[in-house]
Amino acid sequence: MYKLLTPGPLTTTESVKQAMMIDHCTWDDDYKSITRTIRKKLLELAHVDEQEYTSVLMQGSGTFGIESVLTSTVGTKEKLLIAANGAYGLRMADIAGHAGLHWELYLEENDRIPNAGKVVQILQQNPDITHVAMVHGETTSGILNDARAVGQAVKDNGRTFILDAMSTFGGIDIPMSDWGIDFLVSSANKCIQGVPGFSFILARKDSLQAAKGKARSLSLDLYAQWEAMEKDGKWRFTSPTHTVLAFAEALNELEREGGIPARNKRYRDSNRLLISKMKEMGMRPYIEEAHQGPIITAFYYPENREFSFQEMYTYIKKRGYAIYPGKVTEADTFRIGNIGEIYREDMIKLCEIIKDFLEESKHA
Ligand SMILES: *Cc1c(COP(=O)(O)O)cnc(C)c1O
């Protein structure tokens, strides 16, 4: 048994795991009411109401949710701008390419955030662009993009804004309306601390209504999924029942912890503690402090010494934790996440293990 210091799936509580010990029938009223409660609570977390906004649950991992939004909302005569600074931003471009959407890329370096002014400039030069998509927390590097500035810029210019808030929603407060977000996508196994199996989409109702009949896929048709779910809470196709039960419990636990502000504080405290202890050991974060998010941190390999990530990974895993390899291409990094059922004590223990590893491998 080891704890996961990864950006999801992550270490969940015993009670979340316990919630999955029931086999539920999908058309049963009790089950449908769980779906309705989840949809309602997600809107509350985003500070929006059912008059103007709605939520849709979608089978599959986070990527399925992103693919659902992009391929259901960008029509054949419309065009998508993707602001990317990492692998998840580029994945949106990959999805757009596969689906044959009209799209354009605004690419930033992995350690720089997309600039709202630059987005405005692109929109003004390209009146044919109708939608803009960006990642909030780029899990590739741990950088936190300025979704608020970009969202407001997109709104001021009358376009539709799609935010991949996969690794941030529930861990960072996102007032959806204030930030000008039309579609927000996240999934069950990230900061809400559930298990994998579905993604969810929070949407402005008028923006979602505009998507009717535009979908390029049957199973990922966002509008059709919503229409079916609106009737009485039954999902369109077989839903991941155990995951849904676990998620309902995870939402209760988020509430009991003190909601997003309390969870954000726990993540932030763990993240700061981790970074300061790693710095003491000579390990530098890849992202500068001003843009470092509280979810996951990429560290450079230590300099001026032999270092094997695989050896360190195995050493740490034997002692109770799984860390994550790097994903940025220009530098040798590894990543440590601090979301899930993870506390300050875990950061302290982990850093002691890393210290021992560095000591022992120096003498080896
Ligand atoms: C986890 C994640 C996704 C979705 O990845 P899946 O493997 O499909 O769950 C998308 N974007 C970001 C930023 C993520 O962290």
TrEMBL record:
PANTHER family: 2-AMINOETHYLPHOSPHONATE--PYRUVATE TRANSAMINASE (PTHR42778:SF1). InterPro entries: Aminotrans_V_dom (IPR000192), NH2EtPonate_pyrv_transaminase (IPR012703), PyrdxlP-dep_Trfase (IPR015424), PyrdxlP-dep_Trfase_major (IPR015421), PyrdxlP-dep_Trfase_small (IPR015422), SP_NH2Trfase/AEP_transaminase (IPR024169). GO terms for biological process: organic phosphonate catabolic process. Keywords: Aminotransferase, Pyridoxal phosphate, Pyruvate, Transferase. Its cofactor is pyridoxal 5'-phosphate. This is 2-aminoethylphosphonate--pyruvate transaminase. One of its GO terms (molecular function) is 2-aminoethylphosphonate-pyruvate transaminase activity. Residues 32-327 form the Aminotransferase class V domain. The keyword ATP-binding does not apply. The modification N6-(pyridoxal phosphate)lysine is found at K190. It comes from the Bacteria. Substrate binds at R335. Belongs to the class-V pyridoxal-phosphate-dependent aminotransferase family. PhnW subfamily. The keyword tRNA processing does not apply. It catalyses: (2-aminoethyl)phosphonate + pyruvate = phosphonoacetaldehyde + L-alanine. Involved in phosphonate degradation. It holds the Pfam family Aminotran_5. Coiled coil: none annotated. NCBIfam families: PhnW-AepZ (TIGR03301), PRK13479.1 (NF010006), transamin_PhnW (TIGR02326). The lineage of its organism: Bacteria, Bacillati, Bacillota, Clostridia, Peptostreptococcales.
